Amino acid sequence: MAVMNVIESLRAAMAWEMEHDDDVIILGEDVGTAGGIFRTTEGLQNRFGAERVIDTPMDECGIAAHAVGLALYGLKPIAEIQFSGFIHNAHEQIMFCAAKYRWITGGQYSAPLVIRAPSFGGIKGGAWHSQSPESYYIHGGGIKIVVPSTPQDAYALLLAAIRDPDPVLILEPVPLYRTLSGEVTDNGEAAEIGVAETIRRGSDVSVITYGPLRHDVLAVAEELQASSGLNAEVIDLRSIVPYDVECLVESVKRTGRAIIVHEAPYSLGFGAELIAELQQRCFGYLVAPIDRVCPPDLPHSYRVGDEHYKPDARRIRAAMRNIMKYEY
Amino acid sequence: MAVMNVIESLRAAMAWEMEHDDDVIILGEDVGTAGGIFRTTEGLQNRFGAERVIDTPMDECGIAAHAVGLALYGLKPIAEIQFSGFIHNAHEQIMFCAAKYRWITGGQYSAPLVIRAPSFGGIKGGAWHSQSPESYYIHGGGIKIVVPSTPQDAYALLLAAIRDPDPVLILEPVPLYRTLSGEVTDNGEAAEIGVAETIRRGSDVSVITYGPLRHDVLAVAEELQASSGLNAEVIDLRSIVPYDVECLVESVKRTGRAIIVHEAPYSLGFGAELIAELQQRCFGYLVAPIDRVCPPDLPHSYRVGDEHYKPDARRIRAAMRNIMKYEY
Amino acid sequence: MLDQKHQDRVGNPREAEESILDRAAELGVLQVLDKEGRANGSLSEPDLSRDELRYFYETMFLLRRIDERGWKLQRSGRIAFWIPMRGQEAVQVAATAAMHNDDWIFRAHREMAPWLMRGASLNDLFAQFFGAADEPQKGRRLPCLIGNRSINLVQGPTQVGSFIPHACGVAWAAKLKGHDVKVLGLFGDGATSRSEFHSAMNFAGIQKPPVIFMCVNNSWAVSTPLDRQTAQADFASKGNAYGVRNLRVDGNDPLAVYAVTRQARNEVDELGPVLIEAITYRLGYHTSSDNPDLYRQETEAALWADWDPLRRTRLYLQGKGWWSDADEAALDVQCDEDIQAAIDDASSRDIPSSQSQFEDVFAESHWLLESQRERMLQDYQDGAE
Amino acid sequence: MLDQKHQDRVGNPREAEESILDRAAELGVLQVLDKEGRANGSLSEPDLSRDELRYFYETMFLLRRIDERGWKLQRSGRIAFWIPMRGQEAVQVAATAAMHNDDWIFRAHREMAPWLMRGASLNDLFAQFFGAADEPQKGRRLPCLIGNRSINLVQGPTQVGSFIPHACGVAWAAKLKGHDVKVLGLFGDGATSRSEFHSAMNFAGIQKPPVIFMCVNNSWAVSTPLDRQTAQADFASKGNAYGVRNLRVDGNDPLAVYAVTRQARNEVDELGPVLIEAITYRLGYHTSSDNPDLYRQETEAALWADWDPLRRTRLYLQGKGWWSDADEAALDVQCDEDIQAAIDDASSRDIPSSQSQFEDVFAESHWLLESQRERMLQDYQDGAE
Ligand SMILES: Cc1ncc(C[n+]2csc(CCOP(=O)(O)OP(=O)(O)O)c2C)c(N)n1
Ligand SMILES: Cc1ncc(C[n+]2csc(CCOP(=O)(O)OP(=O)(O)O)c2C)c(N)n1
Ligand SMILES: [Mg+2]
Ligand SMILES: [Mg+2]
Hints:
The complex is a heterotetramer, with two copies of chain A (328 residues) and two copies of chain C (385 residues).
Chain A lengths: L1 E4 H15 L3 E5 L15 H5 L4 E3 L4 H14 L2 E5 L10 H5 L5 H4 L9 E6 L15 H4 L5 E3 L4 H13 L4 E6 L7 E4 L12 E4 L4 E5 L3 H16 L3 E5 L2 E3 L3 H11 L2 E4 L8 H12 L9 E3 L19 H13 L3
Parallel strand pairs in A: 2-3, 2-4, 4-5, 5-7, 6-7, 10-11, 10-13, 13-14
Antiparallel strand pairs in A: 1-8, 6-12, 9-11
Helix pairs in contact in A: 1-7
Chain C lengths: L3 H6 L14 H4 L1 E2 L19 H26 L13 H10 L5 E4 L5 H5 L4 H8 L23 E3 L8 H13 L6 E6 L6 H13 L3 E7 L2 E2 L2 E2 H4 L15 E6 L3 H18 L2 E6 L18 H8 L3 H12 L4 H23 L19 H16 L3
The complex binds thiamine diphosphate (TPP) (2 copies) and magnesium ion (2 copies).
One magnesium ion binds next to strand 6 of chain D.
């Protein structure tokens, strides 16, 4: 056990796996000599060589596409996209190449690459350095998505992603990179993809979230318990493809109320999918419509800032209070 | 009034607008000399010249990106993507350039291009020639989406798209191109974007759809009325960004039941968004969970075919019958 | 050529252009054979035996027959789609022969030679056209989009050009693993306009993986002629922008294609990747959905007829005394028989079940897919008429 | 240079490379000025008056002062971000001067000269850094991502290179409309790797719109040196792959940049687009978030110090007797005063309201955005502590 921040835990996971599996390689912009703009891969090029930790040209399409080829042959490439706001030119390569190879070849080939995408707001990043791109990678199928928000999850889910036989997109929590530390067991144990964590037990409402907001939601839940006795259950999804439907259904049936909180914009944010599924599976149990708290359908503005874009305590609190008061 | 098929009505709309507005130009692969692989732009290059009907290199990223530039300067480019399955490499250009220019420049510039994307299954097209890519263009905002499924709508919505001050994606119904004919008033009148059409009044369940399935859903509704007295309301959305929420809410509150039917895969298909919104706005009125009928989360298989992918009569019928029987 | 009505409907097909191959020497297009199949070109004859060359020709001949029968199957409605390869037989046969069987080949959409030359069966090939359940891709892809792992033949995603960096990445991986596996990536002139061509060339120039990029320039991308695809007169020299060696070869000359590809393969470890532009001509329609009359003059194909690879190869073999009319007649019969047998077999095979489409989305299915599958089956029951 | 601990942490910064400009003549890099600011180069002096040249220098000087103050504002926490332009002043000043004011300029991320030279105010520029509500982009973009329609200066989307085809498309549109409007598109060496560079060059070669592509080669893309960006030794000649004329120029020589850009503008209608590679060097950090010590030797900047564009331009002006120490001192004072005034003004302006972010998503808002806006306001009330 060691105390690590999120950057260190991600690095430890990559180092562990590179140490134990020669097929694991890293590629991306500035990941080698500079160790990545967040220093996530710092030291790895010196340790594993420039053949395994590769500085690429500034071409996200090319990074993803070459990772597909590397993976087809049997390597396990970890491709870093510098910021998830720059992933979009790789959309075709990720969703319609990597994610489809197994199916289109009748199971003959597959491209189990890992895409690391630093994501989420909170660093005054403006429209490109604050994105949550998951929705573009959920629809259509063929790629898994994990979203760790603690050092231990970062470690264990990145390991799981690397070992997974399918492509995996990992959305990393930029705002927590260095601000959140915790104990990490650096023993090469991977988490199971698809399993949520109930981080607070409660009986009044199920608040479902993922990403850095996990911490904000938890804080509001604690606060409301103290101030008003509202007893919320808080669930961190951790994986969004596939997600832990049993955990959610069990919780929502029990509480009768659900709120989804995420950083991606409203329309066709992942909340929409969760609501569609949960209203069907929990219909008779719901005493209020399922609510969602998320940014509006527009980009992140540098100067208006994170407070008025990503769900803040006020908005989470409002949703929790109002769902308890709901009457029809 | 003239009888036209969908191809002819689309062509008539473009011809009308090119005749009346010199700023309208067309670009895309094979749109000029050959008149498009579906012959939609047939004759337009001869009529309006090769400067206004432009054969481009085979580069969807470049087609969209140059259309952005042309639009920034004040032209109204209509960019054809040969099949919507080939739009994906233009995703960044469409969603993070065209759709964002107005906002990122503080309203100084905008890129009101039109993207014509032949879409939907039904021609044994396999995984790329049968796609419904709307979900990738809804999340994040900044581009409108229209989906005509009759010759008159094709005419009037394409005109509306060309005249709209914002980027518009028009998903054209490939399977209806030449199989569906109808009266079209070729008088330059555009439809209003954002308005649905209730194509069948009914009181038992609201079946909401768009695209070629409009016709399938209507047929099943008529059949079930005749065979079992089930009286379904059928709504063709026609626009999906923005969509006609008032029409939907009014209908669903009246019927108490809703089913969404579309050709895009399940997870984060547009149905998810509609359900999320409707379950909130119609909560107390719903007597059954909102259901969705759509393909599973996988691509279209050539040989398994359309019947087992896009919702067919059996699946639509089952959903309608079952929602009437729902009990909790 | 076109009547007035036709002229109003469509654009004006441009004047037929003479074959680039008529100016091969001047343009630096490498050749062994001249138009009449004589070894008169800039390259000397590669080291190929009589049997090998006969096999080249026989395979080219078979490809043409497959193409003709496939076209008819489509026209008669027995299969939904066809992608002609007529005129492009030499480049694919010779390039395949130049590679080792362990080498990976990424095909575009007109190359069936690797299938035939690497020991996969004709029956299984036709099974693909019919979408049989037991063909390697389980009947999922359009007819003619053939891929077969057992012979290291990859059919990438359907976006033209999207797989070029995959070819490069596979070669790079093989190099990192120290395997003696090279990669041949085949793509068209149109594909060079796509982003992925740019990415692949750029990465290849830097990383020097053992990949041979072969741009099969067949003069057209659907209706788009070369000068609407790029203002640069040739495709090979695009490699210079990326530090990638390159050359142009007569793609209708199997000896030349073999010679340059073989050399490229031999030298690729030492000298790095190569971009080979193989000049050929699409004699047929773009696909069964196409109508070339709208955009090109019929006379153009005639200008290429003398450069037909089958004709030239046959002349070469006859010149050597390695091919007789009797050989030709026997081959003709044999091809017809084999193809008929393949059609009979393939068309009687099972087609995939609707449930099979749920396989291979992920290595293991998950609850959501399973629930979608169950729901579909349930709906089939509940929704029966 | 690096202590052991440092070496373990990071990769090994490569050896410092001498300035490419030391080999300008040999490499065909066009120059007017030599290192010491004498008009000794391959190009003759362009037709620029004493006043114009003094204005060049004054603007370059002001740019450097802005950069220094901006950096400090960032370091002291008054603004969140800074993108240095130190060392790259000449190319942007001269290129702007060579274009007409009606011409559009697409900037990358290090060019502020158009803002200053086309009559937009210094105060408004600083207002952008502070994200003021009344700056043209409404405070939405990161500091230094400046755009201003009133002077035809476009700041495209933040994906590097994504706007290169937009520049091309604007020029194409102007040509179609018969306007005498040309376009200058500025982008870095790194941007050439992106898909959109490929698209823009390819379309430009074919359509010949009046666009001048200026690749500002500053030796680095964050930590990525040139030879990891492309195996081709220069960026200009990438134009050949697309039939786009191209040349290399000393980007730290404002006279040379002016001369070639002016000529390119004059000839662009007749001869088509040009790709100009302007060679300069990023003396500063990539951005305020960067740490160049991790990837490049400090000594490298020193090798470029003699090529500093301010130094050379000053030497040139002094050689002509057009610039004195007194001029320099006065300029220094003036810049400080103007900048201080701009900071005082800009930092006291209103910042955008939270509601302002809902503007400009579409030309007109729609029900969904409105309901999201109302819900947010309602939540602010209902969620108060
Ligand atoms: C990305 C993409 N755009 C468009 C298409 C439709 N399409 C199929 S083949 C083709 C032309 C390809 O031209 P080329 O690369 O020269 O190959 P050829 O067909 O001539 O063999 C086009 C446009 C596609 N499959 N993928
Ligand atoms: C598509 C994309 N990928 C990555 C980034 C992050 N990024 C910002 S600037 C930059 C380097 C740009 O290099 P170059 O084009 O040479 O311009 P320079 O910064 O040297 O002026 C990178 C990688 C980005 N903004 N966009
Ligand atoms: Mg071609
Ligand atoms: Mg640079």
